[in-house]
Amino acid sequence: LQWEAALRRAIERQEFVLHYQPQVSLGSGALIGVEALVRWHHPEHGLVAPDRFIPLAEESGLIVRLGEWVLREACRQNRAWQMAGLASVPVAVNLSAQQFRQDICALVAAALDESQLDPACLELELTERVLMDDEVLSTLQALKRMGVGLSIDDFGTGYSSLGYLKRFPLDRLKVDRSFVADIGQDGDDEAIVQAIVQLGRTLRLRVVAEGVEAWRQWRFLAAIGCDDVQGFLTGRPVEAGELERLWRAWR
Ligand code: G
Ligand code: G
Ligand code: MN
Ligand code: NA
Predict the structure, then answer these.
(1) Rg of the chain over CA atoms, in angstroms?
(2) Burial of 93 (0-12, 13-18, 19+ CB in 10 A)
(3) 196-214 burial, b for 16+ CB within 10 Å, e for fewer?
(4) Interface predicted TM-score (ipTM) of this complex, two decimals
(5) What is the pLDDT of residue 99?
(6) In angstroms, what is the span from residue 76 Cα to ligand 2's centroid?
(7) Which of 66, 123, 225, 243 could lock onto 149 through a cystine, CB 3.0 to 4.6 A?
């Protein structure tokens, strides 16, 4: 409860910051997107990682307000980068299942309108948990009509049902980093990643591999036709200013 009160205060005092991690095309090496990842600048504990407060924010329902801020801030920042002359690429924002209990379409519309960001430059990352609920289908269809991108995060770890991929209007599949970690060492993981990439191909979904830390993983993923990578190899999550410097110096 102490943490819940602290979290509530933190939302009021805007103690959160977004870090951004590059997503890179395996074919061209270009920066083709960024994922926004929230951090809490706690006045005493310093920078707090999301796995320490997102679950709490979800339990307490505070994720709805936090999620609103994240979405607005990510859209504003992406538009600011475009105005500063950087390439137009999508910013990916993580959505919690709880956020689908509010009018997420209205929120997305407001964030796009305020920021004047092109809907194509926003991607929403869904978990398999969101897709378990058939009632979200019409919501996702409405978001798709608005022109935003939809991806499935941590693919392969949740309550995976391949039916989701067919039923929902998804654009992209993010291979969970637990399958990527042992590429080059574990044949089973390699087979799983290869199968996911094939599946993506067949269903015309772009596939991005998460948690890429080494060139051996890059080479394997390129060889099997994976589209993009996201990981420490090509860039850690960093503050907006640092991401901008990195981006301007890109290749
Ligand atoms: O950035 P990091 O690897 O520590 O993130 C840990 C987890 O927190 C990831 O699963 C990520 O999806 C989640 N996360 C990060 N930012 C957000 C956010 O803005 N909203 C939600 N719902 N989850 C987030
Ligand atoms: O669950 P989600 O994919 O949204 O979370 C992304 C999380 O993965 C972030 O917290 C980020 O810090 C972390 N991450 C990003 N790249 C790497 C990587 O190369 N290795 C590891 N171990 N974690 C990573
Ligand atoms: Mn994510
Ligand atoms: Na993930």
Answers:
(1) 18
(2) buried
(3) bbeebeeeebbbbbbbbbe
(4) 0.97
(5) 95
(6) 23
(7) 123
Which token pair is 123? 């991607």
Question: What does residue 95 show for φ and ψ, rounded to 5 degrees?
Answer: -110, 140
Residue type, 167: R
38 Cβ closer than 6 Å to some ligand 1 atom: yes
pLDDT in tens, 169-194: 999 999 999 999 999 999 999 999 99
Closest by CA position to 248, among listed 86, 61, 34: 86
The model's pLDDT over 198-217, given as tens digits with 9 standing for 90+, comes to 999 999 999 999 999 999 99
Residue whose token pair is 């199968």:
195
pLDDT band at 2 (very low <50, low <70, confident <90, very high): confident
CA nearest 124: which of 33, 240, 61, 28?
Answer: 33
70 lines ligand 1 (CB under 6 A): yes
Q: Rounded to the nearest whole angstrom, what is the distance from the C-alpha of residue 19 to the centroid of ligand 4?
A: 15
Task: Report CA(144)–ligand 4 centroid distance (Å).
Answer: 21
